[in-house]
Specification:
The structure holds two protein chains of two kinds.
Chain A (H helix, E strand, L loop, with lengths): L1 H19 L2 E8 L7 E9 L2 E6 L10 E4 L4 E4 L1 E6 L28 H8 L2 E6 L7 E4 L1 E4 L6 H4 L13 E4 L15 H25 L11 H10 L5 E5 L2 H14 L3 E5 L7 H7 L2 E4 L18 H8 L3 E3 L12 H9 L4 H8 L1 H6 L17 E4 L10 E6 L2 E5 L3 H8 L11 H13 L1
Parallel strand pairs in A: 1-4, 1-5, 6-7, 10-11, 11-12, 12-13, 13-14
Antiparallel strand pairs in A: 1-2, 2-3, 5-15, 7-9, 8-10, 15-16, 16-17
Chain B lengths: L2 H12 L11 E8 L7 E9 L2 E7 L11 E9 L1 E6 L37 H7 L3 E7 L6 E9 L9 E11 L16 H25 L9 H10 L5 E5 L2 H14 L3 E5 L7 H6 L4 E3 L17 H8 L3 E2 L14 H13 L1 H6 L3 H6 L17 E4 L10 E6 L2 E4 L10
Parallel strand pairs in B: 1-4, 5-6, 8-9, 9-10, 10-11, 11-12
Antiparallel strand pairs in B: 1-2, 2-3, 4-13, 6-7, 7-8, 13-14, 14-15
Chain lengths: 437, 414
Amino acid sequence: MTRLLYALTLVALSSLQAQEQAQAFIGARIIPVEGPEILDGVLVVQGGKVLALGGPDTAIPAGAQRREARGKVIMPGLVDSHSHVGSAEGADSSAPIQPEVRVSDSLNLRSASIMRARAGGITTVNVMPGSGHLLSGQTMYLKLREGTTLDVLAMGRLPNGSYLGGMKMANGTNPRRPSGPFPGTRAKSVALVREQFVKAQEYQRKLKEAGDDPKKRPARDLAMEALVEVLEGKRVVHHHTHRHDDILTVLRLQQEFGFKVVLHHVSDAWMVADEIAKSGVGSSIIFIDSPGGKLETKDLRLTNGAALERAGALVGFHTDDGVTDSRWFLRMAGLAVRGGMSRQGALEALTLSGAKLLDLQSRIGSLKPGKDADFLLLSADPLSVYAHVEETWVEGAKVYDRADPRQRLYAVGGLGASHDTYDLSRLLEEEAMETYE
Amino acid sequence: MSRLLLALTLTWALQGQSPAPQGQSLAVRADLLYPVAGPAIPDGVVLIQEGRISAVGRAADIRIPEGLRLLRAKVAVPGLVDGRSTVGLSGLLNQPHDQDMLEGSAPLQPELRALDAYNGRDPLVGYLRSLGITTVHTGHGPGALISGQTFIIKTSATEVTSGVLKPVAMVAATLGDGARSRDQGKAPGTRAKQIALLRSELVGAQEYLRKLKDAEKGKELARDLRKEILGQVLRRELPLLVTAHRSQDILSLLRLAREFDLDIVLDGGAEAYLVLDELKAAKVPVILHPSMARTYGETENQSLETAAKLHSAGIPFTFQSGYEGYVPKTRVVLWEAAMAASNGLGFDAALRALTLTPAQILHIADRVGSLEKGKDGDVALYDGDPFETTSHCVGTVINGILVSEGEETRGPVR
């Protein structure tokens, strides 16, 4: 037992030290994403932040832990702007619009999918409810720190105490159902959404009129409160949309109500890239290995990234995990380049552009002094299929290490790789017990 | 001649054993040519005359006839072979009218022919062709105890009147959850019942074969199409292609194969790495699940390193696009192999497992799978390492005909 305590204390201490003591990674090729690549680079992190980066003569603080990284590639941690890891759930089938439902209340942070995301180099992820509703609930931005609780993994909180995140909406065929309270046509879909947003505007007006007088305030309505957050730009709408006309419908709704919105999937983006660029609205896109499988994706192409980039639109990538596996998120950039996107654009779409889509670009998305020390050690160029994520670091602490066979399991798969039991402290505990016995 | 043999001969003729391919002549010169049958050739040339390869070697050693069309590329490899697909039966739109890979009316329907359902004009066929896949082993999918037959066709064939390499390649079966009946009270509901049904069916076919023998002595016997095809399986004229993922199902399959002396090909094999010795001893080739298949249910324990382990064990294996019920509607074997290449298998073994090995497993290695004199002029051209995600297929040649000049990942080229 004492040995167990000792082991756990060591773990706690070492992770604290990782935060406080400066660490220098020396000799790697560094892709900061903002700014040019550094061939023989030095990255210094401390207190969870990037302290400095530059060439071989970068000043390394005295007492810093030095880490040889020659032959490796260092880049910022990946930002997945649309995922369903953690067994995410949202609204149920009782209504098509459920703004009060929070994905955070459904998450299993011990899910193997979370560990797979770390193994894929994802450090920030927008976890969303599904797309079978016009509005399926509040999303949550997770920072994949070591830990298994929402408070540890939360990116932040909104004033009302809910976790920082957006609002998931969808149009096209997914929210349509032949019966029940769900819409049967596209026009009805928009009518239902419009009705709720008008109601939210009314609620917002009453709140304003009431000012600080609690007696004048309207009765609390959690759905309306959440939609007011959307109207006030505190919650970005993450809008699932595929077909060209549905994409433009989202842009019209955005114009009508003025909310912040990100287009998701955007399968027909290549058809309406100029309209998207003109609107100033960003896109979070995904590449699938072949078109079809779903009517709305019959015209999906690898050129979507290139088309949006050329038009001047902001574009990030997502996994939509489990549609694609978080472990091959880097591959999205390869596919984008195959479709004609620039290397720089594709690397940004994995990182900084994703951060911008989540309004988190001041904290994450590139390696820059003062930003969070979220970065990856790769075995080769990020666009190469032969590259492996060797280590994933979040805020100066290592959260994934391919050299550890137990963690490597989540990268390559194998017996037990899908079991939702990952918990580093528990594994260490088991190991300590074995030693004790 | 027995009636069975007569019937089979008729079947063969009716299904149109393809006439000699309408081939053309051209030459491919590549900075790096991979014949697969031998070592890579820097600055290599493959010469195709009237659809067949007439020479392969260094550019310096091969005279390209005057006026012959010459294609150039950084890398050229044998046309890729998709080891197990449902393309052409499972269409792009994923609507009831274009989904013919699985008939749900009964658990055992070995008489269903792939050729009777194949749509060579489905956009996904062209999509795969544009990425360098020249031959597909396609047909009935997993999802029924015996779902039907498979066949082999070139991806350039828009109709089944040409380009067919084998009108009947295998009989497709499934064990485990995939073959479980979804309807309460309808068999098979359990794993044991699945094997019991298969055993009964095979015993029935054995009886049929025995009666057929007797019939040769003058007795009449009504034809039974279902038993005829299973008779071919029992005579090892057709392999039984069995989808199984759990190690226990793979071992059940090996027991069944021993019991009836069947020629077996394992399809899927998510847990194949747990039973390598048994697979090796039984000499069973594996058409491995897509490397990027989703990890849930029976595939939860799949590993990106299975391909490398099969390779090390000396078990013949290949890749497959498989069947997908959602997106992507078809996978691309080139990219599935790429993931294996980067997870322990390496370039050379991955390329072989994508060309020559599947040709051998499918018994079409006399026609395709490597760049060798006398084989079909099927070549895939790339502007870099074919496995790199950022590379492009810049040309696909089938029977000496340039059937694609750029991949359709950028949209339909036609």
